[in-house]
Amino acid sequence: MNAESMPQCNFNQEAMRFNKLHEWLEWQEELHFTAIELGLDRCTAVAENMGLLNPDFTVISVAGTNGKGSSVAMLDSILSNSGYKTGCYSSPHLIRYNERIKLNGDEVTDEMLCESFSKIDRARGDISLTYFEFGTLAALDIFHNADIDIALLEVGLGGRLDAVNCIDADAALICSIDLDHMQWLGTNRESIAHEKAGIFRGNKPAVCSDPHPPATVLEYAEAIGATLYIPGRDFNYQLSGDNWSWQWDSVVYEKLPRPDQYNSCQIQNAAGVLMVLNTLKSSLPVDDHAIEKGLKNFSLAGRFQMLSEGTQTILDVAHNNQSAKMLVHNLKQYPNSGKTHIIIGMLKDKDRTSVLGELIEIADYWHTVTISNPRGSDSETIKNELLELGVNVPISENDTVADAFLKLQDETGTHDRIVVTGSFLTVGDAMKHLGV
Q1: Cβ neighbours of residue 131 under 8 Å, at least 6 residues apart?
Q2: Among 192, 248, 193, 187, residue whose Cα is nearest residue 218
Q3: Per-residue pLDDT for 218 more than 60?
Q4: pLDDT averaged over the chain?
Q5: Domain end: 297, 323, 339, which one?
Q6: 363-393 pLDDT, tens per residue?
Q7: Phi, psi of 114 (to 5 degrees)
Q8: Exposure of 305 by Cβ count < 10 A (0-12 exposed, 13-18 middle, 19+ buried)?
Q9: Rounded distance, CA 120 to CA 118, Å?
């Protein structure tokens, strides 16, 4: 299905608050008194008003510190290759807001989003909604009207109090668990894991692909009666050269293609995905061919995305300690003979020192950039943090990602590489500049 063949929406534009997508989004950013406010009451109330709380399609919810977007995309790839009609909701976006909501792999149109936002606006009454809550409700509304078989919902922040959790998941997946969003979720893995486990439901399958889940995940699952599957105890996987294998009870998949030959962490994500699919096989059977094809065709922009034209450029949205470690690990698997230039911009609410500390190991040159967003850090702040860490390699300050690339035109050759990282916003700006 392409954008042209998607069901188009008939609506009365005069009844709408706005007619353009960018107008709706700008208004949503200012509507609620704070950009982020966890809690289910507002979203649940509006979803109930719209008749969205009891969908007639299967729901898989995905939480985690890192790997959520990849797991959702992998599930979508496999299920689509099995012939199922899918709806995907993920965040944040890299370039276009429409990336957040997809039907059968295609971004929804501006018109569909505008109509859905208008319906939400009418249904909310005097309930104030956040930007993310509007998007979550729009996804559920669009899926409700699209006759899909399965919805794949990526949790935005945490799980227990995230807007996505207003819908009961038929199966839940938690990816890796690490320190991020600590001002909302807690200061240690145990408390963060407890928040993420909040997407579990009693008597429903729950999967954690993290090989070392905190005890709070197991305790929460047991307390509510969810059937929990964790790697090493319930299912296993093993890498062998360019292939890998997976096993759960009598179910064995051998010589599976790697879902991304350059990104090592995708095997862990894929293992969790296969466990989720097997828990639902009685209602959503998936054959071996669809799994093989789905893994082979999997791709996701901004996750160790390697661009080979000209100086090698790698785009990776790493913005916390765990993802920075994985980025360094992946870079070491593919060493280059030249210099490594890091273009980095980060948000104010991230543990920048932790991320920068990991990347020091592979950086020959730093190019800090300012993120032109209220939550963004400026290039000077990041430079000063690098200096405080004892960095003694060259550091350039840049107003934008485009400025950094323009400087590098005369400073890099075919043996060098450029790594763009630190935020979805930074990588998104790079993609715009490069025309990716």
Answers
A1: 25, 28, 29, 31, 32, 35
A2: 193
A3: yes
A4: 93
A5: 297
A6: 999 999 999 988 899 999 999 999 999 999 9
A7: -60, -40
A8: buried
A9: 5
The Cα 163–Cα 328 span in angstroms is 33
Q: What is the pTM of this model?
A: 0.93
Based on the fold, state whether residues 214 and 141 are members of the same structural domain.
Answer: yes
Same domain, 69 and 120: yes
- In the block, tokens 């669009």 appear at 142
* CA 408 – CA 410 distance, rounded (Å): 5
Q: Residue 25 pLDDT more than 70?
A: yes
| One domain for residues 122 and 262 | yes
CA distance 407 to 139: 40
Provide mean pLDDT across the span 110-131: 96
User: What is the domain range of residue 15?
Assistant: 3-297
Strand partners, 344: 368, 421
Q: Are residues 310 and 212 in the same domain?
A: no
Both 271 and 337 in a single domain?
no
Q: Which value, in Å, is the radius of gyration of the alpha carbons in the chain?
A: 22
**Cα 179 from Cα 199, distance rounded (Å):** 18
Structure tokens at 342: 């890091």
The answer to whether residues 71 and 62 touch, using CB atoms and an 8 Å cutoff, is: yes
Q: Which of 297, 327, 345 is the last residue of a domain?
A: 297
Q: Does residue 145 share a domain with residue 233?
A: yes
Q: How far apart are CA 135 and CA 100, in angstroms?
A: 8
CA distance linking residue 88 with residue 322, whole number of Å: 25
Q: What's the 3-state SS for the chain?
A: CCHHHCCCCCCCHHHCCCCCHHHHHHHHHHHCCCCCCCCCHHHHHHHHHCCCCCCCCEEEEEECCECHHHHHHHHHHHHHHCCCCEEEECCCCCCCHHHHEEECCEECCHHHHHHHHHHHHHHHCCCCCCHHHHHHHHHHHHHHCCCCCEEEEECCCCCCCCHHHHCCCCEEEECECCCCCHHHHCCCHHHHHHHHHHHCCCCCEEEECCCCCCHHHHHHHHHHCCEEECECCCEEEEEECCEEEEEECCEEEEEEECCCCCCCCHHHHHHHHHHHHHHCCCCCCCCHHHHHHHHHHCCCCCCCEEECCCCEEEECCCCCHHHHHHHHHHHHHCCCCCCEEEEECCECCCCHHHHHHHHHHHCCEEEEECCCCCCECCHHHHHHHHHHCCCCCCEEEECCHHHHHHHHCCCCCCCCEEEEECCHHHHHHHHHHHCC
